[in-house]
Amino acid sequence: MGKSENAIVVGGGIGGLAAAIALTRRGWRVEVLERAAEVGESGSGISLWANGLRALDALGVGDAVRGAGVVEIEGGIRDRAGRWLSKTDTGELERRYGPLVAVRRTDLFSILAGALPDGVVRSGVAVTGIGNLEDTVEVTHITGVCEADLVVGADGIRSVVREALWPDARGPRYAGYTAWRMITGPLDFAPSGSETWGRGERFGVVPLPDGCAYLFGVADAPEGRRYPGGEFDEVRRRFGGWPAPIPAALARVDPATVLHHDIYDLPSLTSLVRGRVALLGDAAHAMTPNLGQGANQALEDAVTLAAVLERHPVPEALNAYDRLRRGRTTAIARRSRVIGAVAQWSHPAATALRDTMIRLSPSSAMLRGLDPVLSWEPPE
C-alpha cells in the first residue's frame, strides 16, 4: 500500500463498519460518516451464514459474534397447515460449510463498533456530495469538506454516493411485498427455526439467545401502504390464526417494537466503482431478504475490498474488487428475487404445485443449490 492512506466510509451500517475494521487492520486511517444520530439497529435479528461468518473471522470478530448468537439446529419450510414441506439438514450443512448463527442486530452492531478505535465513527454527519477527483476524492458533508484517497459508499439502498456518481442508474424497485419484523420476549417453549408459506403471505421464526425469537411476517401489499390501526394489529390480523408456534410467539411481542418496511432491491450496476470510489453492501447491490444474504454479502464485500487494497494501488484494487464482487452479488440478488416471487405466489393452483414440488425435492438438492453461496472463502 505504500504510504499510510486515508479512507472515508459513508454509512455506519454492517457493511460500513466491517469495511472500516478491515481497512484499519491493514493500516489505513479511516473515518466513518453516519447520518443517523446513533449507529445500530434494534428490533430485529439476523442470520449469519457460513460465508458471512468466515468474513467476520477475517475481521477478527467471528468468535465474539458466535458467542452472542445461537446456532440454528433446525429449519425448513412449512405449509399453511403447519406441515413440514422441507427440513434443512442442519447437521450436514454445518459439516460442509459451518454453522448458521442467529444474532440480534444490536449485538452485531455492538461487536463491530467495539472493534474500531475511538473516534473512527462520526454519527450525525450526513454526506451531501461527492467530488470524484483524480488523485483524491472530495466529500462534502453537513459540517464541512474533506478529502480521502478512497471513499467507500456503504450508505444503503438510497445511497447518496451512488446517486452522486451513478446518476443514470435505476433506483430501488418494489418487490411487491412488505415485511414486519419483531423480537419476542422470553418464550416458555423452544421454537424451531421455520418459515411458513401461505398464499401471498409467509411467516418466519428464528430462535435467538435467552429463549427469545426473531419473527418476520411478509405479505403482498401495495407499495407505501400503512395501517392506521397499528402495525402489530395488522400482523395479528394476518398471522394470529396461523399454526403453532406463531400465535404463542406473537403473544410475547411488545407492539411498540414492531418494525414495518416495504421490500426493495436494486437493478444491477455495470460497475461498482468510479475512480477512487467503491460501492459496498446495499448501496451496491441491495437484494431481497429471501436468501438471507444481504448482510453476509456486505461482509464479503468489506473483506474482499481490503484484501485487494493490500496488494494493489487504489485504482487497480478497485477494478479487481469490481471483478470479484459484481458477478457474484448480481447472481445472488437475482436468485433471491426469484425465490421471493415464488414464495409469494397466491393462486391456489400455483401454491399447491409449489408446495408439492418442495415436498418432493430432497434435502440434498437444497444443499447443492447453496454451495455456490456458502462455499465462499476470503481472498488470501
In a nutshell, what does this entry contain?
This protein has helices spanning 14-24, 50-58, 62-68, 90-96, 105-114, 160-165, 231-239, 246-250, 282-285, 294-311, 314-343, 348-360, 363-374; strands at 6-10, 29-34, 45-48, 70-71, 76-79, 84-87, 101-104, 121-123, 127-132, 137-141, 144-148, 150-153, 173-183, 194-197, 201-207, 213-220, 259-265, 273-274, 277-279.
**Given the C-alpha coordinates, what overall shape results?**
globular
Strand order of the largest sheet: 6-5-14-15-16-13-17
Output mean pLDDT: 96
Number of strands: 19
* Low-confidence region ranges: none
Per DSSP, the total helix count is: 13
How much strand?
15-25%
Overall structural domain count = 2
> In the CATH classification, which architecture of the largest domain applies?
3-Layer(bba) Sandwich
CATH topology of the largest domain: FAD/NAD(P)-binding domain
CATH superfamily heading of the largest domain: FAD/NAD(P)-binding domain
Largest sheet, strands/sense/barrel: 7 strands, mixed
Helix content: 25-40%
The CATH class of the largest domain is Alpha Beta
Structural class by sheet pairing and helices: alpha/beta
Rg on CA atoms, Å: 21 Å
- For this structure, the quaternary state is single chain
Distance between the termini: 16 Å
